[in-house]
Amino acid sequence: MTGQTQVRDVMVEMTQAIRSSQTVVAARQRMQGDMRVKSLVVVDDNDRPIGAVRYNDISTAEAGGTVGEVTVAGVPTVSPEQSLAEVSGLMTEFDVDRLAVVDSSGAIVGELTRSALSHAERSDSSAVQSRETLSDANVGTQTPVHQVHQDMKVVGDDGGNIGKIKDVLSDAVSGSLTHVVVDTGLIFSHEHSVPADLIDSVDGDVVHLKVEKSDIEALPDPKPDA
User: Which region, left, alpha or beta, applies to residue 189 given φ > 0 means left and ψ of -120 to 50 means alpha?
Assistant: First the structure.
């Protein structure tokens, strides 16, 4: 990424917020209704963000509990003026798929989703250097930090097979690895954009991740408009 794209350029209207006083059941139904939503921004009675609730947290919570009881506090908000480079690692750090965007008074003005962030990273890289993917001229190119290339096997931290590398995305300026696109499909293609910080190690032609296949399948499709 160039660092020039700002949050305001890709943020959308806030649609995935829930009050802390609402029930866990309500949150679970919200997320089950849209399987691409793996977390919700939690707001107080004044609609100010106070954290996030994740599907993994509510799936095992007591049905009679409230969202506030399972809220992950300390999830940061972002401002429209911040660059995407500044905030790109926050969602992975807190295991959420969206962040609240707030103005100078702390009021919500939108949300930044993981799919929008990933899509912008791909677009920025292409705009800067007309990046060729590993499916064409760069098939033999190895990405810095981790020696990752197309068709490498991907396994989870439990040793289970996840899929194979279909593409590798790098920072247009530094050349460092940012994401890998993993195809988890056996018959039909199911692609997921996996942040590079989820890579644990590379052993020969096998990429070992820090998470299991279910975690990867919760990540966005790198082609959200497809």
Answer: beta
Range of the domain at 175: 153-217
Phi first, then psi, for residue 160 (nearest 5°) are -75, 145
Distance of CA 145 to the CA centre of its chain: 20
Residues 110 and 163 in one domain: no
Claim to verify: residue 30 and residue 99 sit in the same structural domain = yes
111 and 43 housed in the same domain: yes
User: Residue 189 in contact with residue 181, Cβ under 8 Å?
Assistant: no
Rounded to an integer, the average pLDDT of 43-63 is 90
Taking the model in full, what pTM does it have? 0.54
Q: Count how many domains the chain has.
A: 2
Mention every residue, 6+ apart, whose C-beta is less than 8 A from residue 166.
135, 150, 181, 182, 183, 191
Task: Decide if 166 is inside a domain.
Answer: yes
Structure tokens at 20: 């802390």
How does strand 199-203 pair with strand 206-209? antiparallel
What is the rounded CA–CA span in Å between residue 28 and residue 11? Answer: 24
Please state, for a pLDDT cut of 90, what percent of the chain lies above it: 38
